[in-house]
Each structure stands twice: as structure tokens, then as C-alpha cells.
Amino acid sequence: MRSILSSPRRRRRLITSGFVLLGIVSLVGVSVAVFDTGPKLKIDKSVPSGPIPTGESEPKPVPFTRSTERAIMPVLRRFVETAVAGQNVAASYDLATPDLHEGMSREEWAGGNIPVQPYPARKVSISRITGSFKRDVQFEAALEPKSGAHIGVMDVQVEMKELRGRWLVDSFATSAVLPAANQPPPSAGGGRTAAPKARKTETKSAAPDYGAGHLGKKWLLLPAAIFGLIILVPLGLAVTGWYRRRQAYRQWTSE
Fold first, then answer.
1. 191: region left, alpha or beta (phi > 0 left; psi from -120 to 50 alpha)
2. What is the three-class DSSP state of 160?
3. Given 3.40.718.10, 3.10.450.50, 3.40.50.1110, 4.10.520.10, which CATH number is that of 66-177?
4. What span, in angstroms and rounded, lies between the C-alpha atoms of 13 and 115?
5. Per-block average pLDDT, block size 10, for the chain (255 residues)?
6. Is 166 helix (H, G, I), strand (E, B) or coil?
7. Sign of dihedral through CA atoms 30, 34, 35, 38?
């Protein structure tokens, strides 16, 4: 090392070579990081896009016909008369689906603690059809109170299904109870009132991202270039400092 650095010309060449090497390493690292043309992550276009299939097909809507209305209205009226108005709760057991039974036996249902809000209903009518499918109808209904009941109209969400050739009530949930004239709004409590069931039409979930990217090679070479700078810069400064000190010492001893 002493013989190599004994000549000022060789020392200057060594310092110059160090800085040139430092510049080359930095330039190569930055160039690779910017102009990396290596293999990219390929997206398999054969993978289907959209929501992950669940195996269950969406029900197809069908028109709500007069014949369907004639089939469901007697069951609905009888259910309101027995289960809601409470004239014969036990008889309403055969007008409801197993889902509405919620696991209750016929004897438990007859006890009156059913998932239907009691109401002194006089009349029921369909307000709006919200879903019509094969063997499945969803609608809003309005129940009018009996005379002198001191309560207003009750709005309900109803779903009825055809099981084994019979239309049955599958869901009967209160959505609002209007107050009578000069009366505060009544509480919606009472009984094991069930929450409205979700509609058949659901919002589709966002398509999964099958093409998630990964870090490329350029992000690995850039840290290597920075690491080279960390090593070469202190080395170049050290050699430069040693050379200056050596020159100063030689100048001092020659005087």
C-alpha cells in the first residue's frame, strides 16, 4: 500500500478511480431501478372475474298475478285474524312456515309468545309488492285497527312462500305503527317481534383482485446501489484526507 501511494500521480489516479467507480455503481443502480425490463408478474386471465360463486343461483323475478293474489290473501287474512289479533293463536301455527316458528312446538306457539306483534286488526291490505318470485312473494301491508282501539294503522313487511302446494307466512315484521288522532305514537314492542328478513336481491360484492402485484427486481437493486454509496463515499473521503495530510507533512518536512 505504501509503494502504491508513494507517487503523487498514482495517488491521484487511485482517488479518481474510486470516485469514478462510485459514480458507475450509482448510475447502474439507478438505471436498473428505472429501466428494469425483467420479467413482470403475469395475470392469469383465465381466472374468472366478479364475485366468487356461491353455488346458489339468484331467483328470477316473476309477475305478481291476480291468481297469486287470490291464493295468498285468504291465508294472510286468516293469519292476521288469529296470530296478530289474537282470536285463535293456536290456529295460526299451521299458517306459518318452520322459519317463522323459530323452533317452537305447537303448544309453545299456542302460548302466545310468538314472533309477531299483537295488534287489534280489523282489516289487512297489500300496499306494495317488493318482490315476486316463483313460490315466494314479498310485500308491504297495512293493518287497520278496530273501532275504538285508540291506535293508528300498522305497516308490516310480509313474506309468504308456497310449500308443498300451500301458501304460508314466512316473515311478518312490524315496520311502523301510526298514532291515532291526538294520541302519542305507541311502542313497537310486545311479543317476540322478528326483524325484517333480508330481500332476495343483494348488492354484489366487489370483484376480488386476482392480479395483486409484487415488488420487482428494481426495488432490490436500488438498495444495493445505496449500500455501495455508503461504503465507497467514506472510503473516498478517507483516502482524500490521508493524501492531504501526507502532502502537508511532506511540505512541512521539506522546509
1. left
2. strand
3. 3.10.450.50
4. 94
5. 58 69 68 58 59 70 96 97 95 97 96 94 96 96 92 96 96 93 54 49 48 56 70 74 74 70
6. strand
7. positive
